[in-house]
């Protein structure tokens, strides 16, 4: 009998020793003369349980974790007996944290072998592409519009409308660009898809190519993601070999091919127009709009720029239909969102759920509060440009409009948790410092204002002319918000002003009444 095990090859699992666990289990099996077959899958996203090892049983997979190399012997002995082990978590699908989720975009992540196109197909892969081919370009766009899918990169722009604009723009050459720069703090969903289910991204981009008559795609991946780069490159090669990319894809009349490009590590290169400059081999600087990338994008040609999660959500929309996807969610936030729980949190990881869950449920119930065991004081949602939310705002629904109504944003779905030891004046200063370091320099409010902002916060922290400097800081934030060309300068005021509004005592002012807003 061959024992089939699954050990994640995802970067988060590797960082906590998944490679060493693999080696130790192989060595233990060799010593015992046991035949084993280890599949290196993606992560299920339960980060506090990584490395999580799964074993195939007649009743499905059973999970163990977090496994250390030193557990290899005892784990193997248990697997050869009745499976009982101190690290046992029971049937994987029954782990409450996983069971509570609605895995739509991440349905295959952690399940399939990311290196195997056959495994992808065996788990429903390519079905979306097949239906897309049967629908034709216009109907694909209409289906994506009807699904209500909004861009998962941050701005939440309707994906179908973007595709329609590119489809309706005449040109002999169009491009599909995938934004895998994933620079937001506390986010890792793009990486998990690329490392755990890379073919779904290829499928989504190929569907976008068919819908808009674009024949060439690029995945722009941040250089800090070497495992994702390697996995995507291997998947593209396999997809080409398997007829999913190249000439006459999947037996159709469409040609579509793609390649990986690695960014050099600038937050602003996640902004779509500076990303395009970077892809063209230039220094990444934000372009003024118009023209929109949909009209004049990469090399001046009509270009779809979408986030990894946006593309990865399209195959299931094609396969199951717009109504299936649209039925999840609330208001104008349709479908599911892969939320990433990070920072000082007990149960961090990837939690995909329909829009509409409250922030409090996510932090307290799903996340289990802080890892330090101290009270949660603030959470930053939506990356470094997102607002800090205090506990009285934890009734906010995870929904684009609900967050915007409270001067926040959900961005790419990252939630970073802080306990009561956080100094919010320092966090506000950090927001200005981040902007100063990452500014592309094109416009004055961001380039100069962020440095002046740091200085003003320093004065406030040192209690120098506090009242006047508080007024100055508010004025500066106003200038940044309304005078910046892109959201880096335009949204830096959100973390700063939310820190000032909800945590004034950290700036030396009287505390705010902590009643519900
Ligand atoms: C400073 C800055 C950084 C950004 N970083 C990213 C990023 O890392 N990944 C991403 O998908 N979008 C990022 N965006 C948003 C993109 O400009 C763009 O809206 C997105 O790629 C469009 O794809 P979507 O509609 O699928 O979200 C960033 C925007 C700004 C202003
Ligand atoms: S706001 Fe900052 S990053 Fe954006 S264009 Fe202006 S200088 Fe560049």
What coarse outline follows from CA principal-axis ratios? Answer: globular
Ligand inventory reads: flavin mononucleotide, iron/sulfur cluster
The total strand number stands at: 16
Number of continuous helical runs: 22
List segments where confidence is low: pLDDT < 50 over at least 5 consecutive residues: none
Radius of gyration: 24 Å
What kind of assembly state do the chains in view correspond to? single chain
What is the typical, i.e. mean, pLDDT? 96
How are the strands of the biggest sheet laid out side by side? 2-1-3-4-5
Percent helix range: 40-55%
Structural class: alpha/beta
Give a short account of the largest sheet: 5 strands, mixed
Share in β-strands: 15-25%
The end-to-end distance, rounded to whole angstroms, is 61 Å
Helix/strand layout:
Blueprint: E1 3-6, H1 11-15, H2 18-32, E2 36-39, E3 53-57, E4 60-64, H3 72-80, E5 88-91, H4 96-99, H5 117-122, H6 127-135, H7 137-147, H8 159-168, E6 175-180, H9 189-196, H10 198-212, E7 216-221, H11 226-241, E8 257-262, H12 272-279, E9 303-307, H13 308-320, H14 322-326, E10 329-330, E11 333-334, E12 336-343, E13 349-354, H15 359-366, E14 376-381, E15 388-390, H16 400-405, E16 414-419, H17 424-438, H18 444-447, H19 449-461, H20 466-483, H21 487-491, H22 493-502
Helix pairs in contact: 2-3, 6-10, 6-13, 7-8, 7-10, 9-10, 9-11, 10-13, 17-19, 17-22, 19-20, 20-22
The site of iron/sulfur cluster has 14 residues, from helix 18 and helix 21.
